[in-house]
């Protein structure tokens, strides 16, 4: 009886955890803020700005901008004179990002709809001082990421940097891409352990500048800052 009760309690705990993860995803799409964040989005934006070394006049690009909540917080940090660029897999997110920026008193956002072969079709080379993403990397299949990474190198100005924030599987930070957890034998969302992310990005033309470091705004969160390796001149 005690064993059965223990199993029931464990199952309830797992189910509750899974339910919270699902609710977090819904809440994030509505607000741009993860329900389990330890503090508000303003504080998280300050962390992004610090790692990216944002200054007025910079061109910043968010990869997978969702509803534009983070862009609206980071945009003022590159004003006056800065410019805003966003990519997303659908036009609804891009429209929401631009609306969020305008509501925050910022200039219009240059938007680019990502495809499976190009992360920002039509974006000229050396357009961005910095690139960043928040809880997006794990959503992109490995074969697509392999195509995107060299394009990020091309999009950055010399000396530009990229900050990727994502989250680890439960209990580890290494190993292959895999489901975050299993409920009744069915995998939940795919996650990319931080060591795997570093290997993928540094294999595509970047060097690791900072991290991986803890990003405590959601469970298992981590961040890493990269810089493009200068390309040899062909002239």
β-sheet strand percentage: 25-35%
What value does the Rg take, in angstroms?
Answer: 19 Å
Order of helical and strand elements: HHEHEHEEHEEEEEHEE
Q: Could you give a short account of the major beta sheet?
A: 7 strands, mixed
Average pLDDT over all residues? 81
Tell me the helix content: 25-40%
Strands, count: 11
Low-confidence stretches: 2-30, 33-39, 182-187
- Gross morphology: globular
Q: Which structural category fits the helices and strands?
A: alpha/beta
Distance between the termini: 78 Å
The strand line-up of the biggest sheet is 3-2-1-4-5-11-10
Tally of individual helices = 6
Structure description:
- This protein is an alpha/beta fold.
- 36% of the residues lie in helices and 25% in strands.
- It is built from six helices and eleven strands.
- Strands 3-2-1-4-5-11-10 form a seven-stranded mixed β-sheet, sandwiched between helices. The chain has a two-stranded antiparallel sheet with strand order 6-9. It has a two-stranded antiparallel sheet with strand order 7-8.
- The chain is globular.
- It starts with a helix and ends in a 7-residue tail after the last strand.
